[in-house]
């Protein structure tokens, strides 16, 4: 019955940027297979000519004025204080591109 | 009666008549939290110092006659909702040290009235769960039986109200996260229509379903809080501009002549607890005796709600949770390169269930599967919405049980993922359709566990939902 192999789980985990242990891969392979087997019951519903629902409010084209709101300098300080790693007021990240 | 046990209505009256102060109620709540939180684990963070300071401010406001509905009333907030300068973890370790610099819109509205923020309540991490066992800060225990779950995801909010650690709470409901724990803990909880209350400042889960609402001790209290937090917000473009009614005034309208639908599918579910079935059927008879017309109706796509829910929600989830990567805020794992910072921060900072949802969603949205899963679920969602539209042409409201069983034991469903997902079987269809619904406690089982009655209304008819809830509450008393 296992629809999702460990290899597929590894591929999905990589897309989702999640490091999984071997036992987690086994577990999710089994559990996701059960879940996708279950949701397959939707196949019995005839949805020909049915438009998908993306939202339920019926609102369309909601606009607001395109004006720049200047953030309070205290808020800016607090946001910067949340950076896990920084140099002065700049966010520090590891190298993005390989050499 | 102890001050922490008061409802909003009772506290307002006592504060206005100067029988006690905001400081007195706040201290009574903090005392109760100290006495009980170790056992129940309803709060992740308690703000004792700032709460006392806010109580002083509220007493000053009252002294100078600046009095609003919630001035001097202590409340709690689900930890997945941002509160200014107050730690907000969402019950996930990836945000263990996160302190938002702003309040969510709904919280801002409440605090502007001089309500007192006591602390942040435990929940399933980022709203993922129906038992509160997916919190990285330990499960919440049910105040009615400490061996049982509080329900989830807003278990801490429901338990904090049920156990009188606060007067009311603000929580979030994506597919039952307010109503299901409210029912397990024996308190009142409202999921508003999608778009009625602003979601700005809420840690997002499934953007097309997320809502924010109150958990209170009575329906009258719920009407007060919902009136304050509802309304359009420029910062949430999905909020509607419709007028917000004076809910408290609607409560006293007679329910005589209302047509109440009872959907047959909700009573044919496998594994439905027979005691709950009997209690709810008796309640329906009570409603009839109050002058309502009971009509048997059908919502034929009910059984597809859970599969639709578990495709749409994890899909939107997996996308929303992409922002939690340990780079700009939150806890960053030790790693040699950028890729490993992402994968390790997320591996260490999310519990098993959150990872499971991210995996389900990523798979459902991945190339080749999008049409088969996400788009298919969105199409069946349309049919579920149409079920409700059709039925509300025939009846004014629907009543159902909130849950197929009372609160289950801790650990009982932990290894059976699908059975845990099915705990939301009665609360997810209305969430998918975006219509308002509320759980009110009606009776207890022989074991003393609360049972909730679920009232569902047409879009933006929260007032009518509360009107029936209030009549039933009065009848019960």
The topology string of helices and strands of chain B comes to: HHEHEHEEEHEHEEHHEHEHHHHEHHEEH
Strand content of chain A: under 5%
Class by SSE composition of chain A: mainly alpha
CATH class of the domain at 3-250 in chain B: Alpha Beta
Q: Which CATH architecture of the domain at 6-44 in chain A would you pick?
A: Orthogonal Bundle
Number of strands of chain B: 13
CATH H level, superfamily name of the domain at 3-250 in chain B: Amidase signature (AS) domain
Write down the CATH topology of the domain at 3-250 in chain B.
Answer: Amidase signature (AS) enzymes
Q: What is the H/E string of chain A?
A: HHHEE
The CATH C-level name of the domain at 6-44 in chain A is: Mainly Alpha
Instruction: Give a short account of the largest sheet of chain A.
Output: 2 strands, antiparallel
Helix content of chain A: 25-40%
Strands in their spatial order, largest beta sheet of chain A: 1-2
Number of helices of chain A: 3
Protein architecture, described:
Chain A is flat. The longest helix of chain A is centred in the N-terminal third of the chain and has 18 residues, at 22-39. Chain A starts with 5 loop residues before the first helix and ends in an 8-residue tail after the last strand. In chain A, a hairpin with a 2-residue loop joins strand 1 and strand 2. In chain A, helix 1 crosses helix 2. Chain A contains three helices and two strands; from the N terminus they run H-H-H-E-E. Chain A has a domain at 6-44: Glu-tRNAGln amidotransferase C subunit, N-terminal domain (Histone, subunit A, Orthogonal Bundle), CATH 1.10.20.60. Chain A has a two-stranded antiparallel ribbon. Chain A has 99 residues and is mainly alpha-helical. Chain B is an alpha/beta fold and 477 residues long. Chain B has a domain at 3-250: Amidase signature (AS) domain (Amidase signature (AS) enzymes, Alpha-Beta Complex), CATH 3.90.1300.10. Chain B contains 16 helices and 13 strands. In chain B, strands 1-3-2-6-8-7-12-13-11-9-10 form an eleven-stranded mixed sheet, sandwiched between helices. A two-stranded antiparallel sheet of chain B has the order 4-5. In chain B, strand 4 (141-142) and strand 5 form a beta hairpin. The radius of gyration of chain B is 21 Å and the shape is globular. The mean pLDDT of chain B is 96. The chains are: A mainly alpha (99), B alpha/beta (477).
């Amino acid at each position: 019955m296992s629809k999702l192999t460990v290899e597929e789980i590894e591929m999905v985990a990589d897309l989702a940027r999640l490091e999984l242990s071997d036992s987690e891969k086994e577990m999710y392979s089994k559990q996701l297979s059960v879940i996708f087997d279950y949701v397959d019951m939707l196949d019995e519903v005839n949805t020909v000519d049915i438009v998908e629902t993306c939202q339920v409010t019926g609102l369309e084209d909601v606009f607001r004025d395109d004006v720049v709101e200047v953030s309070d300098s205290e808020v800016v300080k607090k946001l910067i204080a949340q950076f896990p790693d920084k140099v002065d007021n700049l966010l520090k990240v590891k190298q993005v591109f390989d050499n | 009666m102890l001050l922490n046990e008061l409802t909003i209505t009772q506290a307002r009256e006592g504060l206005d008549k100067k029988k006690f102060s905001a400081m007195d109620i706040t201290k009574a709540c903090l005392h109760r939290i100290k006495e009980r939180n170790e056992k129940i684990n309803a709060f992740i963070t308690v703000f004792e110092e700032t709460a006392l300071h806010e109580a002083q401010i509220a007493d000053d406001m009252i002294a100078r006659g600046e009095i609003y509905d919630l001035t001097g009333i202590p409340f709690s907030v689900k930890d997945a909702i941002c509160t200014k300068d107050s730690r907000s973890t969402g019950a996930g370790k990836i945000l263990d040290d996160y302190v938002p610099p702003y309040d969510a819109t709904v919280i801002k509205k409440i605090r502007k009235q001089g309500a007192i923020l006591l602390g942040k309540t435990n929940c399933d991490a980022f709203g993922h769960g129906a038992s509160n066992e997916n919190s990285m800060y330990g499960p919440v225990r049910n105040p009615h039986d400490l061996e049982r779950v509080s329900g989830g995801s807003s278990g801490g909010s429901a338990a904090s109200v049920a156990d009188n650690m606060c007067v009311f709470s603000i929580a979030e409901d994506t597919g039952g996260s307010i109503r299901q724990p409210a029912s397990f803990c024996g308190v009142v909880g409202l999921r508003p229509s999608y778009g009625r209350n602003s979601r700005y400042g809420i840690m997002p889960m499934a953007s097309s379903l997320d809502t924010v609402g109150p958990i209170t001790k009575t329906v009258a209290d719920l009407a007060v809080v919902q009136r304050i937090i509802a309304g359009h917000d420029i910062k949430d473009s999905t909020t509607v501009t419709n007028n917000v009614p004076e809910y408290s005034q609607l409560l006293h309208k007679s329910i005589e002549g209302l047509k109440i639908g009872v959907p047959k599918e909700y009573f044919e579910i496998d594994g439905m607890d027979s005691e709950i079935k009997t209690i709810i059927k008796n309640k329906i008879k009570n409603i009839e005796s109050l002058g309502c017309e009971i009509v048997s109706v059908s919502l034929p796509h009910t059984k597809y709600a859970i599969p639709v829910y578990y495709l749409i929600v994890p899909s939107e989830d997996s996308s929303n949770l992409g922002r939690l990567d340990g780079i700009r805020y939150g806890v960053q794992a030790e790693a040699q390169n950028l890729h490993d910072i992402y994968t390790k921060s997320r591996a260490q900072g999310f519990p098993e269930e959150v990872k499971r949802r991210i995996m389900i969603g990523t798979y459902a949205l991945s190339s080749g599967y999008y049409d088969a899963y996400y788009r298919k679920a969105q199409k069946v969602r349309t049919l579920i919405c149409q079920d409700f539209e059709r039925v509300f042409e025939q009846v004014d409201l629907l009543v159902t049980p909130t849950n197929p069983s009372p609160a289950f034991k801790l650990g009982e469903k932990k290894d059976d993922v699908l059975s845990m997902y099915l705990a939301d079987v009665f609360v997810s269809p209305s969430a998918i359709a975006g219509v308002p619904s509320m759980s009110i406690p009606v009776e207890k089982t022989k074991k003393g566990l609360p049972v909730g009655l679920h009232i569902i209304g047409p879009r933006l008819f929260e007032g009518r939902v509360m009107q029936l809830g209030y009549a039933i509450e009065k009848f019960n008393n």
